[in-house]
Amino acid sequence: MKSMLMKVYILGFAALSIFFMIIIWKVTFAHVIEESHDRQEVLEALQADKEKDEAPVKTTFQKIILDSEQTVKHYLGYKVLEEKRIEGHFHHIGIDIGPDKRSYCVNCHGDMPHDQIKDLRAFLNMHAFFVSCQTCHVKLEGKEKTGEFRWYDRRTGVIIPSPVAFEEPGTYKSKIIPFERVNGQLIRIDSDERISFASEFRQSKDTLSEAQSSKAKKIIHKIVSKQPHLCEDCHNSKDPVLPLDKLGYPKERIDSILSTEVVGLIKNYTQFYMPRMLHPGDKSGQEREQNRKKNLKKNKKPLTITKIN
Amino acid sequence: MKRAGQVFRKNLNFIIVLICVLLFAFASSVFAADIGNCLLCHKYPGISRVDENGDLKLFYVNEDIFNNSVHAKVNCEGCHTDIKKVPHDPAKKVDCLIECHIMEPSTEKKFSHKDADFFLANSVHSKKEKDGNPKKFAEDMPTCKDCHDNPLYRPLSFFKKVRYGVSEASLGRCRVCHKKDEFIYRFYNHVTTRLHKSRNPLNIAEVCARCHNDPEIVARHNLSTKAVYSYGETFHGKAARFLDERIPDCLDCHVRQGESVHQMMSHEDPLSSTYKDNRSNICTNMDCHPSASPKFATYSVHAEFNKTQSPVQYYFTFFFIVLTGGTLLPLMGIIFLDCIRRLFPHAVIKRRK
Amino acid sequence: MEKTPAIKIKNGTRYFYRFTVNQRIQHVILAWSVVTLVLTGMPLKFPDTSWAPYLYSLFGGIHAAPVIHKVFGAILLALFVYHIVYLVYVIYKYQVLPLKQKERLTTGKVLKLIANQPLVPNLKDAKDIRDLMKYLLYMTRKRPDGAKYTWKEKFDYWAPFWGMVIIGLSGLVMWNKELATMIFPGELINFSLIAHSDEALLAALFLFIWHWYNAHFSEAVFPMGTAFITGYLPEALMVEEHYEDYVEIMTKAGLADEILPPHGMHAVASEEGGQA
Fold first, then answer.
1. Does the distance separating the beta carbons of B165 and A55 come in below 8 Å?
2. Count of the separate structural domains present in chain A
3. Does residue C202 sit within a domain?
4. Same domain? A103 vs A46
5. Complex prediction ipTM
């Protein structure tokens, strides 16, 4: 037994000596190679400059999407403020809410999905930080309609008690999700079944035929209603879609959400900015559809970034 | 009874302290300069979009952090001048050079950052050559926001030498004469933030690194070094990496004493602090190496392990690399062979004669 | 009885005297200061690694660690100077003086004496390395017969010796940079930094891998060699590493008939006997 252990130890040390060799290589000769490689790159870059007045900017996925996520630490002495760095951004962010790991919508549509209605998109994205997609984009009717909404944790996906009373407005690490009634039972609308359907579709997307693919998309989006809930549906004191008091909003927050300030703001929008936008079915709806198609065509152009530095 | 009184007094002290602490916790939100009620919407972190170029636009303003910044006293409208009503059209880019509503007390003129721009335009970072023609790759030259985000207060505490932050003891002295806590708090921050580096040396180096460590920019502008990288190889750079507050950063050497950092000059300019005849003045500064001789400044701060940039140092380092690798790799090989030999102590390859 | 006999028997095992108290104390100071210097120096060489800030703050961070580094650097340099004085004194008193009394001293004789010091590398070391490679590559069963100090120990001695000259001098330059640049150009600091940090890396890796393996972690000594504390080396290790010296000491002590066969030769002897 003892000699067996000793053999294992010796083998382990032999492996360790290989590991040491790699380390020693890295801290010695690897530097020489790296240095000549770097010099080569600079020479090539200069060459490219000479050939073409403006060096071609590399637009790889790595460079644009992955490398652009930077964090910065501000050493203030009495505290260290760590936050995401957005190029050219002046104000500090200071909080990181973290990604929504539950929602199966954001996998395709992203965290900031609203980009069509120019004047509203930032507002809609702001709401999407604490209101799940289904809350507005699914209008439950008849038996399915429950009027039941709860909060779920963005990271774990589990239903949690209302965070509203303990955190600053809009900075909750959770989202509101509607519940539907299936066979007399209350279940959350983002059921595990729907999530696994969507994720299986995403995984096997490349192997599906066009017909299969569009069938899957139809099924995934079946519950989405044609017209989403509009601002006024919640921001009105008579019959708001969301039961704010049940969701844990204290009275003064409810008053603020339904206040003349907010409701007036929305009215202003509907009156001065998009008179017809919030009234579906009329001409503007068709206009919007045309705009959408135009935008789609525009977006088909590959993403080009003119300057990176 | 006496004991009960003591306990009560002790508790009272505690309660007073607690109230003070709470007041301070809330103090920041008391100062809000949000006259236009912009935060009604902009306090939500999610207020954002991805624009047509694929860039993230975030319209969130963290009120607490903003109120601890040097701009705390400026209203939103002070900079975002085009916004007159709520809801508003897409806002224009802020012009940092506008005159804002704040009075500069010594001249009683409206405050503006125009001087910084003037200095910058005459510095090595100018977009134009000395003859007025635009520089090649002028778009690489920095503008305000390439170096600055909203500068945060970094107050000093002289009463407690060990840490930074607002000193309660000195606030007590302020309160003797000044009645408004908001004023005291802001003034304390305003003054003490400027009594030391407004940013930690590492933060300064990181700002310069955004351009000066970018290999493409370094190559495009024929710069001799990835400056922050080579600074990081010196003791100064390493100490900054370990958050030393008193170590010289880029600005300490590249800006003439007492001048604005925006007035940085090329090392070829005789007026520059880094011009070869002026360099020893940097090092022999009273706060740094006062006893050093002028020769001291011939230390090459930005020498890199690079054959073209500093060949002598390259070969000197190369010697040690060969020595280290050449000694250790064979020895590691012997350890490896020794381990394997000990696994089969009696084995031997028999040679036929 | 002599205080430090050449052979000591404890629990039925023979132990061979190798290091004097003076040498052992020198070694402990050396080891202690080198470990401290490496721990306070390496975070500065690799400041971007994940472990560096933690290790550095263990020694008080950027304000205290450099001071500790200089204190232990000074201790090490003092030890180095002491060692040189000790070396000269010992050689002079025990070797040069007796020679002087016997016959007339010439420069050639003194040089010859120095070249014959047990720690000076010689031809036998080259031969031993060749034989070791043969052994490690399974070409022979016989390990080279080590003398009092093997080539490994000479390496262990001269590598830090050279290292201490390089690191010590460059360290002194960087410590007294203002003084040094009164005479030399500022670029001397650049070269000092390179030499100091690169040579230190070599020394640290050499000591912590090679020396520790041979002295502590190798199968023969595992889990820890004790000769650096007790001064005595057990018989098995004497046979394995210093066979030549072992035979000499045993013969001197009149135990010539109890000399063990060379390392790994029991099996060989029996096998060859069987074949014959």
1. no
2. 2
3. no
4. no
5. 0.88
